[in-house]
């Protein structure tokens, strides 16, 4: 199966390759291979060449957003030097499939380990990421050294994102996605498994702990928004609170306040009017590029430019998936749907006894507080890495692999 803009219902046939057959049985699992038509590559280059650029901002730093000189440089590289065909080869190295779950097409990688007794592991990305985040982790997880745990790896694409394509109905919030993941893992024959996620993937994994607790051996996250202090007073009334706990809570509240003031505009737009935003991003690759890269700059542990943390070709592979699948708007709708059912944090979660491991990075968006996490989750492992940001699969895949291995071994 080849695909470009999946599930796009009002564009000409010439601009699209074959798409997943949503009329197939909901139990069907169909092989999938990425092959963007050459006409779409030509169209991308033409659009980039004809970009109408905005005026230069008063400062050359990132205070106003993505600097004009950097945007132009990245766009020129995307147009003239980036090799999408080489990226396709890399993406197609791993077995890919689609299946219809709860009425939505779900694209996923499924890579089995040759080792007997390997543990199934579900990996979920977030926004503005994709399954590309986990590519460098797959071989170390499926074919580890003899003394380390091995995994059967499943990497689904969130409905509305990438090669899963557009969602046709409302209500695809993290809880519904978690239920879809439980169905998908059952369909693949996995009754018990581990789950990991960052960003939205962390929230989906957190919901999966509540929606399918009997299926989860354990959960592992790199972001835990339900344990973020927003006032610094969240620990009041809890027993045995230490000065260290209060210092962490104060730092958590300070970062949350700073983010609300300077960094959350994208989230408010996507959670309230995603369709209005989508018109510009669907029509302009330069706009789509800027919208994503600005977040990668802010959310990674870099020395001034995104490429300090993520190489340029990998970054543009991720951006290209959003562009070729025309999923800027449908991916943004996850913010809107979550906003209808409790917001990004989803409100106070029900207690869970599923073992939870938390791996934090100093340049991530938020600072979770362990004492708050322990109020509703069974924390069995808490690791603080000394460098890195919001995208550990891109920035420090080895560290994430090792933490997953240690967590699995302990369980």
Fold blueprint:
Blueprint: E1 2-3, E2 29-34, H1 38-49, H2 68-80, H3 84-91, E3 96-101, E4 104-111, E5 119-124, H4 135-142, E6 151-156, H5 174-187, E7 193-197, H6 200-211, E8 216-221, H7 243-262, H8 265-272, H9 274-283, H10 285-299, H11 312-325, H12 328-340, E9 355-360, H13 370-373, E10 378-384, H14 392-395, H15 397-410
Parallel strand pairs: 1-2, 5-6, 5-7, 7-8, 8-9, 9-10
Antiparallel strand pairs: 2-3, 3-4, 4-6
Helix pairs in contact: 1-2, 2-10, 4-15, 5-6, 8-12, 9-10, 9-12, 10-11
Query: Nearest-angstrom radius of gyration?
Result: 21 Å
Percent of residues in helices comes to 40-55%
What are the segments in which pLDDT stays under 50 over at least 5 consecutive residues? 1-24
The chain-level structural class is alpha/beta
Order of helices and strands: EEHHHEEEHEHEHEHHHHHHEHEHH
Query: Could you describe the largest sheet, including whether it forms a barrel?
Result: 10 strands, mixed
- Backbone shape: globular
Number of strands: 10
Count of helical segments?
15
Arithmetic mean pLDDT: 93
* Measured distance between first and last alpha carbons: 38 Å
Strand residue percentage: 5-15%
> Which strand order do you get reading across the main beta sheet?
1-2-3-4-6-5-7-8-9-10
């Amino acid at each position: 199966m080849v695909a470009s803009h999946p599930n796009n219902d009002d564009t000409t046939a010439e601009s699209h390759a074959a798409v997943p057959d949503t009329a197939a049985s909901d139990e069907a699992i169909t092989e999938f291979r990425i092959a963007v038509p050459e006409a779409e590559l030509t169209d991308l280059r033409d659009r980039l060449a004809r970009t109408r650029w905005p005026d230069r901002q008063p400062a050359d730093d990132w205070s106003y957003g993505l600097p004009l000189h950097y945007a132009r440089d990245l766009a020129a590289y995307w147009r003239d030097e980036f090799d999408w065909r080489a990226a396709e080869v890399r993406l197609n190295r791993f077995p890919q499939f689609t299946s219809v779950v709860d009425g939505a097409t779900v694209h996923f990688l499924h890579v089995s380990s040759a080792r007997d007794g390997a543990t199934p592991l579900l990996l979920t990305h977030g926004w503005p990421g994709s399954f590309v985040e986990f590519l460098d982790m797959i071989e170390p997880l499926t074919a580890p050294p003899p003394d380390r745990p091995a995994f059967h790896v499943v990497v689904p694409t969130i409905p509305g994102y990438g090669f899963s394509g557009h969602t046709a109905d409302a209500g695809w919030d993290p809880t519904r996605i978690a239920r879809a993941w439980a169905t998908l893992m059952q369909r693949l024959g996995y009754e018990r498994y581990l789950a990991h996620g960052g960003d939205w993937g962390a929230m989906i994994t957190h919901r999966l702990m509540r929606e399918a607790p009997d299926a989860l051996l354990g959960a592992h996250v790199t972001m835990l928004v339900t344990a973020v202090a927003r006032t610094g007073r969240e620990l009041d009334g809890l027993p045995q609170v230490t000065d260290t706990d209060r210092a962490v809570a104060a730092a958590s509240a300070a970062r949350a306040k700073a983010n609300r003031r300077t960094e959350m505009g994208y989230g408010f737009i996507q959670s309230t009017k995603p369709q209005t935003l989508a018109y510009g991003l669907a029509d302009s690759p330069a706009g789509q590029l800027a919208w994503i890269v600005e977040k990668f700059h802010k959310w990674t542990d870099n020395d001034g430019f995104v490429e300090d943390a993520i190489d340029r070709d990998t970054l543009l592979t991720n951006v290209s998936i959003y562009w070729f699948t025309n999923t800027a708007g449908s991916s943004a709708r996850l913010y809107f749907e979550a906003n209808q059912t409790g917001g990004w944090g989803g409100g106070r979660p029900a207690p869970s006894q599923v073992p939870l491991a938390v791996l934090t990075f100093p340049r991530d968006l938020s600072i979770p507080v362990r004492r708050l996490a322990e109020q509703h989750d069974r924390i069995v492992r808490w690791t603080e890495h000394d460098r890195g940001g919001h995208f550990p699969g891109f920035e420090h895949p080895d560290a994430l692999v090792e933490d997953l291995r240690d967590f699995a071994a302990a369980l």
